[in-house]
Amino acid sequence: EQLIASDTVNTTCCYCGVGCGVTATVANQQVVSVSGHQQHPANKGRLCVKGSSLHETQQSPDRLLSPMLHGEPVDWDTALGYGADKFRAIIEEHGPDAVAFYLSGQLLTEDYYVANKLMKGFIGTANIDTNSRLCMASAVVAHKRAFGSDAVPGCYEDLEQTDLLILVGSNMAYAHPVIYQRVAKAKEERPELKVVVLDPRRTATCELADVHLPLRPGTDAFFFNGLLNFLAEQNSLDAAFIRDHCTGFDEALAAARAQVPSLNAAAGHCGLDAQELAQVYHWFAGTDKVVTVFSQGVNQSSSGVDKGNALINCHLATGKIGRPGAAPFSITGQPNAMGGREVGGLANQLAAHMGYDNPDDIARVEAFWQAPNMARKEGLKAVDMFRAIEEGKIKAVWIMATNPAVTLPEAGRVRRALEQCELVIVSDCIGNTDTAKLAHLVLPATTWSEKHGTVTNSERCISVQKGFLSAPGEARHDWQIICEFAGKLGYGEHFTYPHQVDIFREHAALSALDNNGQRGFNIGALAAIDRAEYDNLRPIRWPVTTEAPAGTDRLFTDGRFFTPDGRARFVPIQAKAPGLAPAPDQVVMNTGRIRDQWHTMSRTGTAAKLLGHVDEPYIDVHPADIQRFGLTPGDLAILGNGQARYYGRVKEAASQRQGEVFVPMHWNQKYALASCADDLVNALVDPLSGQPEFKHTPVTVKPF
Ligand code: SF4
Question: Are the beta carbons of 560 and 566 closer than 8 angstroms?
Fold first, then answer.
């Protein structure tokens, strides 16, 4: 279906969680150029190099054009019939928990919604998780603990309007480049805007920083526990805000004080210079408008939830929330990580910010969906899901628009688990990802410029990603594939949607159902949207309700939170070290993004311009470690542990702390044999969020 055909189309970028508006120029069924959409609130005309290359990554020689069963092309009816018969047989013999879906923050909200509904309401298991587990699952739990619901309080303007911007575990210049450009512009116009970067590495983002604090990896919660204690000692608390709008302050302060009783103690834990630390603590205490941005450096940790709450505690203690330029601010990795959270596409969520911890929520969703087989307990989170596949407990898995054979920790083990799984279905636009190669059934899905639906970015802003080109070959939209599969399982009556807007309306109606303002996410005012309004939806920040029909820029402006009593919760934090300490002959491997690549490079790896920035796997090594381990800059080196090896070219990098190396996360077996960084990462996870510790893997390093 070609939804829209015109010379220029306003749509949304398909890469990162900034969610930039893109104006695409189309000719002869091809995107010939792109530019930033001037009116989109996320980017106001800007694009980064990935976004501005969207048209150059359209044509992939590996594009999947027809369903493939055991490597042979088949028609859709045969493909989905085969998948449904196998699913049904496995469910009948082993129960619904023997099947699973693994989704992606690259899916649109409508795709996510029907997948979640099918699994949790009709198949009858909550074994549906997503690669967003690897990205922001810890922030979700931290938000829920502090605010009563998973909600980012502020909007991007707050990063420009603040007087002190603290970036924690965020290389924004590479991972969220357009927000970085906005902050750079704000600082140019207002040099008094102070920027502090907390990161073990001196990243490109530090170009903008007044102060870079290269804290010891994993010590973020010590830093914020120390700050909470400091704020109390300096009489810099907002006592009225704490009294009127929060609970649990005394316990949180006691925990922080017991562990980090002084500024010197904080400096010692974090490995920082005490004077520099004092300066930043004083800035936080003395600045009314502070925004603290946190990203993967906080979340990808075996104690990521606690780190998030330690940070939020400091904002609550000083009332720096719910006002322009004042907020704790989680920025997500993927374009629709937040949309996935809204529909409930994580194994520990239910739907529309309702959860398995509330029987009323389960009954409410069950009735709304008219669900015959409602899942009544949480499912398995990503790492546990693939462990259950390895153990043979999950016998069929459907992986949509993601590449877990490369991106999950202990990725080699994941590949082996998939090799012996009874049924692996992959739906994707590319047919030769490392995961697709292991599938029995591969289904061709539409991609950016072909698929049509909504995404939600890091500031709660819902935008339309437009479909304006015809689907190539036999590719179909993910939501259509899922609905047809549901029909083959006998649930077609509940999955008959003439158009994406019908799914969106149902999703919006569910978000408002019995929602008295405590669930955070609510777009009830969009539940009757017509197709033309939907196709041309102007970007809008939720909640979108009858009281706020134009959306909501900031949450908690009245000091009321989404908890039953309306008060925010302080969480007492016992800061923890990373799960594994390096042995004397090891270094700590940190993984992350480079500027011009996205995920496992299935799209960005096809553009020469994007490969021009960095064209091979590398290892950033401190000069002293180059000496210590006998390495030579420009030569290959091997990182290793008991489970795998990673080969990369040595780069001398004074930006590293001694004893720590950095490697890019993008390369995989398709591009470079044995340079898959996540093969080495241990499957240690945060006990609350299930998010893996990608930032702290002890490894040996040797010359090749
Ligand atoms: Fe796309 Fe993110 Fe770049 Fe914006 S910042 S153009 S959303 S990749």
Answer: yes
Which residue minimizes the CA distance to atom 2 of ligand 1?
16
Amino acid in the structure at residue 335: P
Angle formed by the axes of helices 137-147 and 304-317, nearest 10°: 40
Tokens of 238: 């907002």
Cβ 40 under 6 angstroms from ligand 1: no
Q: 48: Cβ below 6 Å to ligand 1?
A: yes
Question: For residue 12, how far is its CA from the centre of ligand 1 (angstroms)?
Answer: 9
CATH class for domain 587-703? mainly beta
C-alpha angle 180-182-188 in degrees, rounded to nearest 5: 100
Atom of ligand 1 nearest to the CA of 42: 4
Ligand 1 neighbour 15 (Cβ under 6 A): yes
Render pLDDT for 654-695 as a digit per residue (tens, 0 to 9). Answer: 999 999 999 998 887 766 566 788 999 999 999 999 999 999
Instruction: Classify domain 8-57 at the CATH topology level.
Output: Phosphorylase Kinase; domain 1 (3.30.200)
Q: What is the pLDDT of residues 304-363, one digit of tens each?
A: 999 999 999 999 999 999 999 999 999 988 889 888 999 999 999 999 999 999 999 999
Compute, in angstroms, the gap from residue 179 CA to the centroid of ligand 1: 9
3-state percent helix, strand, coil for the chain, nearest multiple of 5: 35, 20, 45
CATH of domain 137-331+565-569: 3.40.228.10
Closest atom, ligand 1, to C-alpha of 48: 3
pLDDT digits (tens, 9 = 90+) for 230-243: 999 999 999 999 99
Q: Three-class SS of residue 123?
A: helix
Report percent pLDDT > 90 for the chain: 89
Q: State the distance from the centre of ligand 1 to the C-alpha of 569, rounded, in angstroms.
A: 34
Q: What is the DSSP-derived secondary structure letter of residue 692?
A: B
**Which ligand 1 atom sits nearest the alpha carbon of residue 177?**
5
C-beta of 169 in contact with ligand 1 (< 6 A): no
Q: Is 50 in the pocket of ligand 1 (CB under 6 A)?
A: yes
> CB-based contacts of 60: which residues, under 8 Å, 6+ apart?
429, 430, 602, 603, 606
Two structure tokens written together for 284: 């936080």
Positive or negative torsion for Cα 648, 650, 655, 657: positive
Q: Whose CA is nearest to atom 3 of ligand 1?
A: 48
Which CATH number does the domain 68-135+338-512+521-541 belong to among 2.60.40.1640, 3.40.50.740, 3.90.1150.10, 3.90.1100.10? Answer: 3.40.50.740
Instruction: Give me the residue label for tokens 């190539």.
Output: 472
Q: Which atom of ligand 1 is nearest to the CA of 12?
A: 7
DSSP annotation string for 7-63: SEEEEE-SSSTT--EEEEEEETTEEEEEEE-TT-TTTTT---TTGGGGGGGS--TTB
β-pairing, 72-73 vs 68-69, is: antiparallel
* Residue 153 preceded by cis peptide, ω within 30: no
The CA-atom distances, in angstroms, between 101 and each of 116, 385, 423, 426, 519 are 9, 9, 12, 10, 25
**Spatial separation of the C-alpha atoms in residues 483 and 497, rounded to whole Å:** 8
Please give the backbone phi and psi of residue 437, each rounded to the nearest 5 degrees, phi first: -65, -20
Predicted TM-score (pTM) of the model is 0.96
**Domain residue spans in the chain?**
8-57, 68-135+338-512+521-541, 137-331+565-569, 587-703
Instruction: List, in sequence order, every residue forming a beta bridge with 463; answer none if it has no partner.
Output: 455
What is the rounded average pLDDT of the residues 383-411?
97
When pLDDT is cut at 50, 70 and 90, the band that residue 602 belongs to is confident
CA distances from 302 to 61, 296, 685 (A): 39, 12, 5
Q: Are strands 423-428 and 441-444 parallel, antiparallel or unpaired?
A: parallel
Are residues 442 and 434 in contact, defined by beta-carbon separation less than 8 angstroms?
A: no
